[in-house]
Amino acid sequence: MSYSDKLIDHYENPRNVGTFDKDDDSVATGMVGAPACGDVMKLQIKVNADGVIEDAKFKTYGCGSAIASSSLVTEWVKGKTLEQALDIKNTAIAEELALPPVKIHCSILAEDAIKAAVADYRSKHEAGETDYPICA
Ligand code: FES
Ligand code: FES
User: Fold this and answer.
1) What atom in ligand 1 is closest to the CA of residue 66?
2) Where is the NIF system FeS cluster assembly NifU N-terminal domain (predicted)?
């Protein structure tokens, strides 16, 4: 299997690895797992008073494609509103990284992590709207 330069770059130099203090009110956490392989992805977003994601961090215990997908989405969500972040589709992630077909589910994990983080933020800040599945 051959991997794209972008994928290898994100895998070898992952952006925004780490965690925020989960007790910080502006921080929300999305934790998702892939039943098929057992990999786990944690994505945290830091949302400012205007509802814009100003920072993001991740920790992923998984394959290279999952790590690259998480690294990429931490870059993509920055500067976006929660609604805009929810528009990030796994197909765009897979295309950007040129994921091979057997690795598409790794990009789905990243999309799910965004949804879970946004859902967590909303559950903390807006009563109601909490019903995003944690695992696909
Ligand atoms: Fe790895 Fe699905 S088998 S995320
Ligand atoms: Fe485990 Fe990609 S997330 S194989």
Assistant:
1) 4
2) 3-126
**Ligand 1, atom 1, residue with closest C-alpha:** 37
Q: Is residue 115 part of a domain?
A: yes
- Tell me how many domains the chain contains: 1
In angstroms, what is the span from residue 49 Cα to ligand 2's centroid? 34
The catalytically annotated residue of 6, 22, 24, 37 is 37
Q: Quick one: tokens of 72?
A: 């990429």
Cα→Cα distances 23→19, 124, 131, 136, Å: 11, 11, 22, 26
Contacts of 8 (CB under 8 A, 6+ apart): 68
| Catalytic residue status for 135 | no
The domain spanning residue 39 has which CATH number? Answer: 3.90.1010.10
Angle at 28 between CA 82 and CA 85, to 5 degrees: 20
Domain assignment of residue 134, yes or no: no
User: Ligand 2, from 3, 10, 41, 105: best to mutate by most atoms within 8 Å of Cβ?
Assistant: 105
What's the whole-model pTM score? 0.88
What is the predicted ipTM? 0.63
Domain extent at residue 94: 5-123
Q: Give pLDDT tens digits for 5-53.
A: 999 999 999 999 999 998 899 999 999 998 778 899 999 999 999 999 9
77 domain residue, yes or no: yes
